[in-house]
Design goal:
Structural class: alpha+beta
Oligomer: single chain
Distance between the termini: 47 Å
Number of strands: 11
Mean pLDDT: 95
Largest sheet: 11 strands, antiparallel
Helix content: 10-25%
Length: 265
């Protein structure tokens, strides 16, 4: 049975002019899409509305989430998010253009201890980014990044990008949880050069909300680099941190770093 009222948002492609040309209309159409893809992190942002509405700040403190992107969402789409009760929490679906584009789940389990910082190796962001391949994204390697300052302006931009209406984020200095997946993307893009690429899914365990004023960074281990159905994938296990000391979230993050259209070229 439905857990809460459906939530509809007009999708917005935040990355039309980014380095990743999968978000560019002309390039994306060459890959068989109808236009530039709305970034997966932003599709996830739409999906977080219902668990954040349901559980409030507690979900940012110790909640969990999963997301998987199966079909593209395009700029201007009216994306509808629905949630149904399960024994463990919520099953979440996002539809646009009459088709299912993303699935996920969210829950509010008892708080769990964050991993110890020394379990995640701290490394500097690479000074010179090499092209992404099996060697530069080798399993077992670690990735880091220069921290991103969560300014009031950046936090406001995230809310505008996500079309978020919940008062939760406007009271108390909280940063929208889209920042967690954006930081995971930065762990990759600040260390290697990609061609067109796609974030396809993530599993998230929150430990604390990101706050305005935090310096947000990441320690990420590459756990997979493999081919599947012609695509080349990279998996990372990322610990997102505030001020180099406070774990915000642990994320298992999956991306296609070389789509089969490029791998076959």
């Amino acid at each position: 049975m439905p857990a809460t009222a459906p939530y509809t948002v007009e999708a917005y492609n935040t990355a039309k002019v980014s380095e990743n040309k999968i978000h560019d209309d002309a390039v994306a159409k060459k890959f068989g899409f109808g236009g530039g893809l709305v970034p997966g992190a932003d599709v996830y942002a739409y999906m977080t509305h219902l668990p954040a509405e349901r559980w409030g700040r507690a979900w940012l403190d110790h909640g969990t989430a999963e997301c998987r992107f199966s079909k593209p969402v395009y700029d201007g789409d009216h994306a509808t998010v629905t949630a149904s009760e399960t024994a463990g929490g919520l099953d979440i679906r996002l539809e646009a253009r009459g088709i299912q584009c993303a699935t996920g789940a969210a829950a509010l389990p008892a708080a769990v201890a964050a991993p110890k910082l020394d379990e995640f190796k701290q490394v500097a962001e690479r000074a010179n980014r090499p092209p992404a391949d099996e060697k530069t994204l080798a399993v077992g390697d670690w990735l880091g990044m220069t921290p991103l300052k969560a300014t009031p302006e950046l936090a406001a931009e995230y809310l505008r990008d996500a079309r978020e209406t919940l008062p939760l984020y406007r009271n108390g200095g909280l940063v929208h949880p889209v920042v967690v997946l954006r930081i995971c993307n930065l762990a990759l893009t600040r260390n290697v050069v990609f061609g067109p690429w796609m974030h396809v899914g993530s599993t998230i365990q929150h430990f604390a909300p990101a706050m305005i004023g935090d310096a947000l960074g990441v320690r990420a281990k590459i756990t997979g680099n493999y081919e599947h159905k012609g695509h080349l994938f990279v998996d990372i296990d990322a610990l997102v941190l505030a001020n180099e000391t406070t774990p915000i979230a642990r994320v298992k993050h999956v991306s296609i770093y070389r789509p089969r259209q490029l791998a076959a070229a």
